[in-house]
Design a protein that fits this description.
This protein is about 55% helix and about 0% strand. It is mainly alpha-helical and about 90 residues long. It has a domain of about 25 residues. The longest helix is centred in the first third of the chain and has 43 residues.
């Protein structure tokens, strides 16, 4: 009984592994074909356009200082300490 269960488990793992490898192979083949098409377009003189989801828009105002705005609100403000009298 235990031997049958272990054999079935190994068979299931082998099938899942084979399906995962086929999936990765199909994705890699598709990515390679896409790269070959883009390479052919670049060699033909076309400039590839970046997809809109890849482009990150910058804010209109440049950042000043080391911390970004969310972190700057959490940092303690630098205050000048009162001068100590050395008398």
């Amino acid at each position: 009984m235990i031997a049958t269960t272990i054999a079935a488990l190994f068979s299931l793992v082998a099938i899942v592994t084979a399906l995962a490898l086929v999936d990765v192979w199909l994705r890699a083949r598709s990515a390679y074909a896409s790269l070959k098409r883009q390479s052919a377009l670049v060699q033909a003189g076309f400039v590839p356009q970046v997809e809109a989801r890849v482009i990150r828009l910058r804010s209109g105002t440049p950042r000043v200082g080391g911390a970004s705005r969310p972190f700057a609100r959490r940092l303690p403000r630098a205050t000048s300490a009162p001068a100590l009298d050395a008398a």
